Amino acid sequence: TKAPGAAPPDTTDLDRLRAAASDCHGCDLYRDATQTVFGEGPRQAEIMVVGEQPGDQEDRAGAPFVGPAGRLLDRAFDEAGFDRQKIYVTNAVKHFKFKRDERGKRRIHKTPSRTEVVACRPWLHAELTAIHPELLIFLGATAAKALLGDDFRITRSRGERIELPEFDVTAVATVHPSAVLRAPDRDEAYQAFVADLVAARGGR
Ligand code: URA
Questions:
Q1: 55: Cβ below 6 Å to ligand 1?
Q2: Per its record, what are the GO molecular function terms (predicted)?
Q3: 3-class DSSP state for residue 199?
């Protein structure tokens, strides 16, 4: 039998999905996280962006991409010519996974396991069905692999347009904004990130 609330209700009503996800025990991450961080944005969004999982600040705020990675993402979307009003933002995994530093104070991000990504995937499917965007943008390997399969490599296929007929959507994967923040040459990494977003938009 399934854990409580592990499967989304059969609905495209985002408020109902969000309410149901708040009780999800589909994997163990709910135990230590503050709350479920569901996607946000207009239901008529033409573009859906998928990150990895909420970070420390997102876990506290209950909203995706409100921390440092989110600020970089906002700036990059502006620069790439996107209208933020048309974008729905979510994550492949909807609870923050972390470990404590040695002093037990800071919460350090841990990459979610394949099992956790798969456990959370029905929620991503439900959001995708509800939003039905024209364009799906994956930020980083965890997000891309969630829907494109474990063999997908960002390094090989970033910026390529990939048709996903089962969801009637075009997908493009690029790096995660946190990877841009950590890059040795941050400026170059940022420009390449913006270029991928421009290509995703179908621009030049
Ligand atoms: N990183 C992510 O992948 N998602 C967030 O919501 C924040 C940081």
A1: yes
A2: 4 iron, 4 sulfur cluster binding; deaminated base DNA N-glycosylase activity; metal ion binding
A3: helix
Q: Is the CB of 72 under 6 A from ligand 1?
A: no
What residue ranges in 77-181 does DSSP mark as E strands? 87-91, 98-100, 107-109, 135-139, 162-164, 169-174
pTM of the full predicted structure? 0.96
Per residue in 29-69, pLDDT (tens digit) is 999 999 999 999 999 999 999 999 999 999 999 999 999 99
- Site of tokens 């589909």: 26
Is residue 58 lining ligand 1, measured as CB closer than 6 Å? yes
For residue 155, pLDDT over 60 is answered with: yes
ipTM of the assembly? 0.93
Can you identify the CATH homologous superfamily of domain 14-201?
Uracil-DNA glycosylase-like domain (3.40.470.10)
Ligand 1 centroid to 131 CA: how many Å? 19
Q: How do the domains of the chain map onto residue ranges? A: 14-201
DSSP code per residue over 24-66: --SSGGGGTSSS----BS-TT-SEEEEES---HHHHHHTSSS-
Strand 98-100 to strand 162-164: parallel, antiparallel, or no bridges (unpaired)? unpaired
